Amino acid sequence: MRICLFSSKTYDRDSFLAANGSSDWHLQFHEARLTRDSVALATGNDVVCAFINDDLSAAVLEQLAAGGTRLIALRSAGYNHVDLAAAQRLGLPVVRVPAYSPHAVAEHAVALVLALNRRIHRAFNRTREGDFSLHGLTGFDLHGKTVGVVGGGKIGQVFARIMHGFGCQVLIYDPFPLTGLGELGARQASLEEVIASSDILSLHCPLTDDSYHLIDAARLAQMKRGAMLINTGRGALVDAPVLIKALKSGQLGYLGLDVYEEESELFFEDHSDLPLQDDTLARLLSFPNVIVTAHQAFLTHEALDAIARTTLDNIAAWLAGQPSNEVKAGA
Ligand code: NAI
């Protein structure tokens, strides 16, 4: 079995080699993203193992199928970047890792909340420069505040439980009825109520046609003035350019992004010696009340181990003729 991993970094190599153990499966690691230009690297591999910013459009899938690929194994939960209809037409099953560590992502969202509120990023820089002043660092007690969660699935529920632990009142919007929210100290509410009532709004839903630009200019205007927005879901849940006006006017008080609609050309790579070409991102990074992390919410040892183990299990199940964690068009 030959498996070709795109967008694979040293941490992926470590976790996959450990999970592969003494198996005779051959793992080929490429740092390159899967694109029309790099697709030839997969030729002769049975399985292509891809991550979130790899190109799995119809054109690339056609080239993969022609090169002998028989299975697409995603290392992610999200599959919005895969042309599932094309994969089905080409007879290429697509499997994913539906859950690896909801704690990893939820805890990173909490890290963004705490850092933004207590200005940890600013304090870190100040004290290293010998500036021990406190002006501009005033935060607020989380206790008693209202936290809105959009998407009450695995990650949203872990986030809700943690925020309840801080003494927050938690409201969750999800298009489907949720059960067991009492245990999380949360209540299900309409999207309108969640947006209008929240001091902190955190996005944990998948990117779909319905959720594309869920947070746009109109919804930003409906938020409490000075509220905090956290997005660890997918970049395109938010219309990024309209955030700038909301931040400049003070309508949006704090912004924490782990994902960005145009991240695929930037995130996971070191561009520090090049001029940043994305003017929206450059402007967002200039605000003192904005923190951007480069899609690192998943990056814990536990999550990496689980991703590697589930991916190899998915491949074994497919080989045995009993695919698990398969995603299909229209499902
Ligand atoms: P999940 O499938 O357990 O939960 C998603 C929830 O969102 C479900 O309850 C679903 O009913 C709800 N939902 C669907 N459409 C919605 C809409 N339009 N508005 C509000 N809610 C909606 O998924 P999980 O594991 O909680 O992951 C959530 C998302 O987090 C993923 O789809 C992925 O995009 C993102 N993610 C980000 C990571 C990162 O490193 N930043 C890592 C892993 C996931």
From TrEMBL:
Its EC number is 1.1.1.28. The keyword Membrane does not apply. Pfam families: 2-Hacid_dh, 2-Hacid_dh_C. Residues 110-297 form the D-isomer specific 2-hydroxyacid dehydrogenase NAD-binding domain. One of its GO terms (molecular function) is NAD binding. It comes from the Bacteria. It is an enzyme of class 1 (oxidoreductase). Residues 13-326 form the D-isomer specific 2-hydroxyacid dehydrogenase catalytic domain. Keywords: NAD, Oxidoreductase. CDD domains: LDH_like_2 (cd12183). The keyword Oxidoreductase applies. SUPFAM superfamilies: Formate/glycerate dehydrogenase catalytic domain-like (SSF52283), NAD(P)-binding Rossmann-fold domains (SSF51735). Belongs to the D-isomer specific 2-hydroxyacid dehydrogenase family. This is 2-hydroxyacid dehydrogenase.
